[in-house]
Design brief:
By secondary structure, the chain is mainly alpha-helical. The protein is about 65% helix and about 0% strand.
């Protein structure tokens, strides 16, 4: 294939990194403009990062990670091997990012993040798992 044409298309990695930037920004209730200001880019550039249409450079990704209170590794966790064209590059992440992007997912995550005690958070996770298993028994 013609590399010049493919070079303009976003890679699966760029799309996934962008999706995770958007997800974490929304979980924190931060606007694109606020993130853009904190990392010294335009909000349009943040939009391009989130769509995966522009690659995020290493130093910029570090700045974004700092603003979003996550390690840089957050943007790459769970990705399959180096083959960017591989289907299922991020196994199981589509459902998760889809849910977190909904109003219900954001509300649930914000409420969970408001619980500071790690023991209580673990009990909440256990409760939700128990409720989910009961639903499967019906």
């Amino acid at each position: 294939m013609n590399k010049a044409v493919n070079a303009k298309e976003p890679s699966a990695v760029d799309i996934e990194v962008g999706r995770r930037i958007r997800m974490q920004r929304r979980v924190l209730g931060m606007s694109q403009s606020a993130l853009a200001e904190r990392v010294s880019v335009t909000f349009q550039q943040v939009q391009k990062y989130e769509k995966g249409s522009n690659r995020v450079g290493a130093s910029r990704l570090q700045g974004i990670a700092d603003c979003l209170n996550v390690p840089v590794s957050f943007f790459f966790e769970g990705m399959a091997g180096a083959d960017e064209s591989e289907p299922g590059l991020v196994k199981g992440m589509d459902d998760l990012t889809g849910f977190i992007s909904t109003a219900e997912g954001l509300a649930l995550n914000r409420a969970f993040l408001a619980v500071k005690d790690a023991r209580i958070r673990q009990k909440i996770v256990g409760l939700v798992k128990s409720l989910a298993s009961l639903e499967g028994d019906d």
